[in-house]
Amino acid sequence: MTLEHFMNEAISPWMREEGPDNDIVLSSRIRLARNFADMPFPIIADQKDLEKIREFFQIEYEHTSFQDYKDLEFVSIRDLTAIEKSVLVEKHLISPLLAKKEGAAATLISENEQVSIMINEEDHIRIQLYFPGLQLTKALTKALELDDWLEEKVSYAFDETRGFLTSCPTNVGTGMRASVMMHLPALAMTKQINRMMPAINQLGLVVRGIYGEGSEALGNLFQISNQITLGKTEEHIIEDLESVVQQLIGHERKARNRILEQSGIELEDRIYRSLGVLEYSRIIESKEAARCLSNVRLGIDLGIIKNVSRNILNELMVLTQPGFLQYFAKKTLTANERDILRASLIRERLQFEK
């Protein structure tokens, strides 16, 4: 397996699987932050210390496997082009922060792209594991098993009172960020999501865009995650998050049904107009593409559109991002060139589907 394996397909293998409530919840993610007990944390470590950690992971874990997560590929960030970094960010295999790192930053990615272990990001280790749909409990179980596997060779920075020690105080304790990616078009259309965000924040959760902190909610995709990591167990954090997610699922379904009942013809018009834009546009910006893809996905979930696969929409959401477009073109593109290529790829993919 090589880096090219992760670049050639816009949609990760695990994303093709069906998951609970996947008409609304695209994915569940568990991220664990860990640090070596006997090494300075990345924020103060010198390059020599970080290189030791990088070399340790390459020697110990490259091409190893753990349970279903086969053939971990070691990828050094400094060896990547800017476009390759963008593609890995767009597929959520690395964070935007890791992509900006130089020197000793790296990652280990499983063959099915369900697991990535980021090295020398904000912490020495950032383990992240994905499952399709709403599967937080299963994702947590697997993430903790993977964590135990790594701990067989790594002594973690841990305090009996405070828990796992991390570079940022907001991660101290469990070191865990649990999150779900949700498609909430009806709540966005009715503006209900704006009223819900403050209430969600008061519960110790945060609503972010598709790429986490500081990113936009493109295509009505929202990431809901915990803010509190200290004073609660991993299981309690998951319970609190899942409770809110279930409520959001209920509100979204009610909003979809209400729009369908009260404004059915207007909704169908919106959906089919969006499909027409995607099928016939010769130039399209990323925000417009994301908005149209969101409308078409809603049409698929409501049974209005029957000849387009939901997976095609998932694929196009990634395939039409700037990094992927330029990787596909094998060159750096201007914004206008990306808009033209984006429209062309969408047309071709939808025509192939039919």
Commentary on this structure:
This protein is 47% helix and 15% strand. With 354 residues, the protein is α+β, with helices and mostly antiparallel strands. The strands form two sheets. An eight-stranded antiparallel beta sheet has the order 2-3-4-5-1-8-10-9, covered by helices on one side. A hairpin with a 3-residue loop joins strand 6 and strand 7. Helix 3 (82-90) packs across helix 12, helix 9 (264-280) crosses helix 10 (286-301) and helix 10 packs antiparallel against helix 11. Its EC number is 2.7.14.1. This is Protein-arginine kinase. Belongs to the ATP:guanido phosphotransferase family. Residues 24-255 form the Phosphagen kinase C-terminal domain.
Q: What count of helical segments does DSSP give? A: 13
Our Rg estimate from Cα atoms comes to 21 Å
Main beta sheet strand tally, sense and closure: 8 strands, antiparallel
Number of strands: 10
Biggest sheet strand line-up: 2-3-4-5-1-8-10-9
- How many angstroms separate the termini? 32 Å
Rough shape? globular
The low-confidence parts are none
pLDDT averaged residue by residue: 92
Q: H/E element string? A: HEHEHHEEEHEEEHHEEHHHHHH
Strand content range:
5-15%
Please estimate the helix content: 40-55%
Secondary-structure content class: alpha+beta
In short:
With 354 residues, the protein is of the alpha+beta class. It is built from 13 helices and ten strands. It has an eight-stranded antiparallel beta sheet with strand order 2-3-4-5-1-8-10-9, covered by helices on one side. The protein has a two-stranded antiparallel sheet with strand order 6-7.
